[in-house]
């Protein structure tokens, strides 16, 4: 008997009985890769990497900004949060627009808009102004759904998981500022340059503005002028129709955990290392990079694993590893005090997490997130092949909004409890909810369609199997 990964099988009612229905492929005939697909993947990944760096630059700029403006931890958290908000809330319309007019046009427009907003950040002179400019520069975060739509239209199903995973590895841009930021800030503090640009943290947004302009020019020069536009003939209603499917919202919650938490931790960890382990900002940036790199660079591996063994298996792996790592990270430092009959006390079970163990566990969590991010997006072109822009946009939007809500939640939890590690307790709870919902869905499906298999993890292929009608590609979702 041959096992294949389980799938979320849609059903319809027939004479009181539920039977599986294949994900529709009537409007998505198998197509080869578009001319210039490799150039599209290369340039879109470069553009996304730089825009992701711009989107999350306040993670490393936060400490100098906090010192200059005299901000509290909660006030500082809102600077990153509003950038993440604007980089998430437009992902759905951005993905739909890319489906309709082509990803190339939308990507170039985002690069140009981001350059203007990033340059303006350098001239912020008050906390309210900084909030407004952080919000505006955050718009570049919506480039993710544009790139997903653009690459999805260019690649065949056979290579789509890997291509989307490689594009998504542009998340590594979050580490760029961690590497170059502290050195540039220290070397240029107090200097003044052309057009009144000041050194220190204010120089970083200007350098990013120049990179964005250069990338826009390269995208114009090297990518094919003619795009595939799968949504060109569809109405907005048709593009939004799949959003009524509960699976879209479940995938979105998964993405809150593997991507929203990634965004939040990328901004949260530098200050965490400085405040809790006493390292300097440059060291904190490097330690944070040990989380960002695996969470980004393993995304292509996650796409390959999902293509090879199925996205569901990859998600189980992701959630179990994240639960184990966050379960240790959320444990507070301290000890238990025993009050003895003679009135004395005795301290037992002393616990304090070392810097090395903390970095190792965060690294492991990053590895799981990298695989999980690709696994979530592997589901989308399989089940919604004609609406990748809208579905991918919604999943990305809600996942990104998780990155908006989590930093303030971390800050408020720390303020209320006095313990910074409560952030990992929040992450543990979210991961547990996702794992329970996913496993309940699998168990319910097996119990309804094959009661004798209700204790199995995967649905075996047999002459009577409810998934016999699924294609090989669909069975691996």
Structure description:
By secondary structure, the protein is mainly α. It has one domain: Up-down Bundle (Growth Hormone, Chain: A). It is built from 19 helices and 4 strands. The protein has a two-stranded antiparallel ribbon. Helix 1 runs parallel beside helix 8 and helix 4 packs antiparallel against helix 17. The longest helix is centred in the middle third of the chain and has 32 residues.
Radius of gyration: 23 Å
Widest β-sheet, arrangement of strands: 1-2
Unreliable spans are 1-30, 457-477
Shape: globular
- The percent range for strand residues is under 5%
CATH topology: Growth Hormone, Chain: A
Any idea of the CATH class?
Answer: Mainly Alpha
Look at the structure and name the CATH superfamily.
Answer: MFS general substrate transporter like domains
Any chance you could write out the topology, listing elements then pairs?
Blueprint: E1 11-14, E2 17-20, H1 37-55, H2 58-69, H3 73-86, H4 91-101, H5 103-121, H6 127-137, H7 143-154, H8 157-168, H9 176-188, H10 203-222, H11 236-240, H12 246-277, H13 281-297, H14 299-309, H15 311-329, E3 334-339, E4 345-351, H16 355-383, H17 388-417, H18 422-449, H19 472-475
Antiparallel strand pairs: 1-2, 3-4
Helix pairs in contact: 1-5, 1-7, 1-8, 1-10, 2-3, 2-12, 3-6, 3-12, 3-17, 4-5, 4-7, 4-17, 5-6, 5-7, 5-10, 7-8, 7-17, 8-14, 8-16, 9-13, 12-13, 12-16, 12-17, 12-18, 13-16, 14-15, 14-16, 15-16, 15-18
Key attributes of the depicted protein:
single chain, 477 residues, mainly alpha, Growth Hormone, Chain: A, two-stranded antiparallel ribbon, disordered N terminus
């Amino acid at each position: 008997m041959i096992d294949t990964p389980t799938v979320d099988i849609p059903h319809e009612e027939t004479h009181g009985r539920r039977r599986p229905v294949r994900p529709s492929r009537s409007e998505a005939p198998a197509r080869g890769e578009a001319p210039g697909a490799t150039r599209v993947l290369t340039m879109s990944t470069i553009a996304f990497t730089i825009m992701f760096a711009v989107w999350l630059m306040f993670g490393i700029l936060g400490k100098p900004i906090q010192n200059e403006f005299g901000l509290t931890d909660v006030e500082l958290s809102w600077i990153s949060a509003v950038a993440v908000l604007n980089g998430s809330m437009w992902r759905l319309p951005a993905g739909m627009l890319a489906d309709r007019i082509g990803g190339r046009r939308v990507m170039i427009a985002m690069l140009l808009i981001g350059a203007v907003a990033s340059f303006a950040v350098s001239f912020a002179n008050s906390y309210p102004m900084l909030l407004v400019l952080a919000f505006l520069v955050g718009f570049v975060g919506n480039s993710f759904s544009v790139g997903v739509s653009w690459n999805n239209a260019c690649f065949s199903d056979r290579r789509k998981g890997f291509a989307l995973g490689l594009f998504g590895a542009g998340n590594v841009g979050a580490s760029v500022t961690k590497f170059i930021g502290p050195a540039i800030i220290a070397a240029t503090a107090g200097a003044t340059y052309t057009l009144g640009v000041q050194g220190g943290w204010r120089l970083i947004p200007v350098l990013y503005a120049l990179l964005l302009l250069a990338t826009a020019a390269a995208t114009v020069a090297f990518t094919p002028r003619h795009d595939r536009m799968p949504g060109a003939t569809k109405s907005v209603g048709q593009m939004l129709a799949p959003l009524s499917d509960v699976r879209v919202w479940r995938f979105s919650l998964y993405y809150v955990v593997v991507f929203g938490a990634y965004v939040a931790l990328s901004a949260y960890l530098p200050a965490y290392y400085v405040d809790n382990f006493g390292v300097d900002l440059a060291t904190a940036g490097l330690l944070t990079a040990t989380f960002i790199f695996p969470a980004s660079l393993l995304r292509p591996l996650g796409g390959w694993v999902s293509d090879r063994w199925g996205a569901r298996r990859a998600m189980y792996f992701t959630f179990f590893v994240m639960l184990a790592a966050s379960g240790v990270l959320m444990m507070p430092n301290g000890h238990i005090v025993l009050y003895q009959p003679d009135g004395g006390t005795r301290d037992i079970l002393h616990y304090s997490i070392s810097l090395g163990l903390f970095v190792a566990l965060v690294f492991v969590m990053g590895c799981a997130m990298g695989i999980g991010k690709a696994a979530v997006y592997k589901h989308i072109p399989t089940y919604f092949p004609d609406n990748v822009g809208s579905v991918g946009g919604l999943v990305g939007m809600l996942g990104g909004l998780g990155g908006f809500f989590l930093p303030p939640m971390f800050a408020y939890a720390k303020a209320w409890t006095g313990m910074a590690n409560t952030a990992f307790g929040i992450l543990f709870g979210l991961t547990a909810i996702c794992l329970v919902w996913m496993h309940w869905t699998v168990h319910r499906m097996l119990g309804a369609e094959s009661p004798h298999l209700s204790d199995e993890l995967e649905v075996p292929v047999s002459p009577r199997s409810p998934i016999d009608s699924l294609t090989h590609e669909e069975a691996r979702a």
